[in-house]
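Listing 4. Sequential folding, example run.
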Amino acid sequence: MKKQMNRKAFLQQMAILSGGVGIGLGTVTGKAFGQIPAAYAGNAEAGKVLVIIQLGGGNDGLNTVIPAEDDLYHAARPNISIKKDAALKLDQGMYLHPSAVGLKKLYDEGQVSIAQNIGYPNPNRSHFRATDIWNTGSDAGTLWDEGWAGRYLKTRYPEFPIALAKHPMAIQLGSVESLLFQSDQGGFSTVFEDPNLFYQLVSGTPADTDIPPATLAGDELGFLKQIAAASVQYAGVIRDGATKGKNSLSYPTSNLGRQFSIVSKLISGGLETPVYLLNIGGFDTHANQLTQHANLWKTISEAVKTFQVDMDNQNLSDRINIMTFSEFGRRVNQNGTAGTDHGTAAPMFFIGKTVRGGLIGANPNLKALDNNGDLKFNYDYRQVYSTVLRDHLGLDNVRTQQIFNSTFERLPIYKNSPDALPEAVSIELTSPWPNPATDNTLLQFGIFEEAYINLALFDLQGRQLKLIDSGLRKVGSYSVRFDVNGYASGHYLISLSTNRGGRVTRQLVIQ
């Protein structure tokens, strides 16, 4: 995927900007894209917020979610393993780092899901390349320069960059825009470290309305102009949100605590931004890991717990979810300097009132390591992203498949996620849309192993009324438009079955 500014779209945006920022870009309708129904523009759930914490450096998963009852763990780490008497007990023989007291309290309240052994095939151990893989949603052998969140935001804001949304489409607390938010239409995020300083920096700055030259350098200049235009538009919005918003309690004085404090003010101040990115570094623990790792998880735990209580106090917690990720885990065996080197699979945390709570997946298997002596992953990280996009942010399965160029089964992270971990062979059929249907309805289904399928309409007595679609289908997501004209008003069943014995049924109401 190549990141280049769509020149026609950029020139159109410059034409809009030439009218002046004072008219308010958020009111421009972007007629070039037409009126797109919500379900076709990403089907996003209004008000849902995803807060991502990037754990920079490669978090040691085995000392975060600890197999403290496994003798192999202690044998591999004679100097840095954490004994179960010191750790915080979870479930199925696993323990949480003793510094993560606030997270443990949230876990006990059912507000933390922990997905174990998340990774991908042929993992890369370079900080830079591995971070790019996680940010883009690619596999180890594919180079993309668009972020998975950028591709999601492109579906949510189809008029960008011709028209900018009323509120920032994504916010990153930091100084350099992450690849996570890049797309072939440009970057979707607004990046700053302090709302007031950001406003002071761009306050009074006019939009540059000169059309760039039709050259490669002109295209690069177009990106810079686009960023500048968005900054001018959003500086006041962000400042006003931070001023109107509040913290219901004091935040920790750590940098991560400060970042969460800002996010709290922006959300409570009325910003409709769906994705935030926060950062905490220091996880490259090659030496003297115990103290450094303990301080890091104390910092995360305190900041996250404060934010959750704050959002609950302000009646905002039902629509917010926090997700952590790091570019890789660490080696199973400790090294010679009381630390750990770059490894593979690791756990991911999901915090909020909409999660199922508890551990997801089997414990790390220290008896069956890969050829390098590292952990084997159980679930692909793109399964996690697909679950977040669909079950938290409300994206449909077809667009989720398009974001990753493949179909990934979801994990039971949220209360509306699948009830169980995916099996070796499975299919998925989503509810028809619209439902009830008066004219036609869209049927979407996913195939996770090549199979012959039958998609059919049945009455409530089990009689097949119409074979809608059939044949051999490869792995992927599919959509079929079904005309309901000619069928009597009432309740029907849509059934998807395969030659492998799988069957999923959804109810359809025809008006």
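-- end of first protein; second protein begins --
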Amino acid sequence: MKFSSVALASAAMGLAQATPLVERAQITDADVLNYALTLEHLEAAFYQEGLKNYTQADFQKAGMQDPFYANLKETASDEQQHVQFLTKALKAAGAKPVEACTYVFPSTDVKSFLALGSILEGVGVSAYLGAAASIMDKTYLTAAGSILTVEARHSAYLRAALGEAPAPQPFDNPLDFDEVYTLASLFIASCPESNGKLPVKAFPALTMPSMAPVMTGAKVDLMVAGDMPKDTSDIYAAFITVTGPVWAPLESTGAGKFSVTVPEGIAGQSYVVLTKGNKQATDDNIVAGPAIVEVGEPNGPMGMGSKCSGSSKPSMSGWPSMTMSMPSASKTGMPSMSSGSMTSASAAASSSPVFNGASGKSVSVFASVFGAVAAVAAFLQ
């Protein structure tokens, strides 16, 4: 049963009044909730734009038969109610909620829209999972957890509709604040100047020229969008999992280009980062990424009108183009996200901007997300 707007407002008010905002390691619960609200604004805007651009008939022509369209409208409503809930909770607690930004979504038809939606929902699940450890107050943790479970349902539904395994692995992958912002900022053109700063930054982009899904044991090509030191012997690849990074063989082919073998135990929407050293994968030593890689074979249709075929390999023929204008640094009011020299992990961190609700972009920064989007969309062919 859906909550009414009044019920949502009352719940948020009661939540915030019952528990004051607290601080943990320079990140307050208000920061975490505003971080979550930033993501919910993005998702709500994404679905609003898609449902405005594409009709029920458009989805049916793309192979998504009823009641898929009605369920998608429910998903859009969920995201809007998440926005309302977090906004009310922050206001009632005396914190200023961030406002919606201006976004650029690279979808040109129903297929690319659904593919990108699946990616965003997967990132949303990983974002809430990764942020949970930073929430001190149990009431806020429970509230965030209740949103996380719904985001996971959205993700599973879209994956199944696209012919993907709805739950490809027994544990979801958490992403930290900076890792999520690196991905989310790709779709943010500009934000109101009144939005407060959050303690997050973007890492240099890690791109993937191949747009096809891969299997474990396969080699994946990666490229860093920025300068790399000549000596890359201390640069490693790490696939992010809930139990810690899974290190994979990394081969440098020069000029910031690498190849990595997908290790065993990695499945579904997965994330790989490059690190300095192979002892940990944290904000202190991540030098690029994450890149999103879809690991595993398509399942075929799951009874939702998908035109996937479980017996055929995905084809890139007919892949819809996704283009958009790139906001300049002067337009967004922030420096470009393209990286400078990464001779050390600290240098990589210092070259990344601090989030204030807007970001500049370079063309290459989109490739890692576009590759993953195309991989999912390919199953619709």
